[in-house]
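Figure 2 data, in text form.
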Amino acid sequence: MADGDKILLLISDRKMESDQWTSNLSERGWQVTRVTSFDDALEMDCHRFLVVLLVTNSATDPVIPEFVSRCGSGEAVLLLPIVDYATGKEILKLMHMGLKDVLIRPFSDDMLLSSIDRVASQRDLLKENTEYRTRLETANRVLKESLDILKLDQIAGRQVQHSLLPPSPLRHGQYEIAHRIVPSLYLSGDFVGYHIVFDRYLLFYFADVSGHGASSAFITILLGFLLRRIVQRHVRDKDFKALDRAPEGFIEYVNRQILGTGLEKHLSIFAGSIDMNKHLLRYAVGAQLPMPIFVVGNDARYLPGKGKPVGIYEDATWNVEEIALPARFSLVIASDGIFDILPGENLDARESQLLEAASVATMDHDQLCTALGLESLTEAPDDISILTVTRGQ
């Protein structure tokens, strides 16, 4: 508190006492203005004083709340009443008005000066609090603006991600493939891709990238780019031998690319290829959970196969399994986010629930989504994705 700020108003009709206080305060660097009545004080600009001493007989004197009302709260004018008597309840009431202290007679000159200094120091604290509140409000405003920009970026990213998804459903001859993705955030770490090549090969994959947000979404976009590039190369070269062996080598290729990004991301993946002339399914599994479900009639069972996650091991390889497809079947692939909405006390119970839903829905993708509760789901604790491949609807 600078000396130039030490301006005090003394309201008292007790001359001898006031003269003594004025002298003591002047020695301490205070500029004292004295008036003898409350009405005289109201004619002045009370806000130019740092501290106002109001000498009165009682703590219940109505001039105290009137002064606070006219000159502002305790944060605007630091009022120090000096009273002959006050109960604890009366003092508490004055504190609730915003007053910082009350002096009750008798007291020494040192006590008076100490109380004035203590009340005056509140102004610096109030000023600091006001400055802190202003900085906090500014920081909150900047943060909100940043969050709004981030939200717009996330929405734009979601639109880009959505635009890269294949059409659903996609039908070709006896086969149909369809998907649904319910993201937990704007951007999803789940992604699907599928293409029909030479009106014969149905190439598809289903991936679940670790984590959430932009980095996971970037990996899904990279996966879509990699699959399209591979398909384009096979079409350009008319490489039927590679298509007959698909998805052989695909996950190994993806693994190298993910490791090369340096993003420290890993993913589970199911890569499949159906020769729609031979009705033959070839697939490879990379840490897929739950395993894809193969449904024939009302019989639903998990496909065999296993493999390491992608993006962790440099020299990992993945085996390709092969299944001859019946005239009517359904292949159901789900991300592990589905377990968050299925009933059951443990993983085994929830896997049984998923099998039951797949067997009941059989050949209908929309019916399966309804059975799993995805139709009415508004918020997902984790990304949830479903991909179905059917033949013979």
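Caption note: The longest strand covers residues 201-209.
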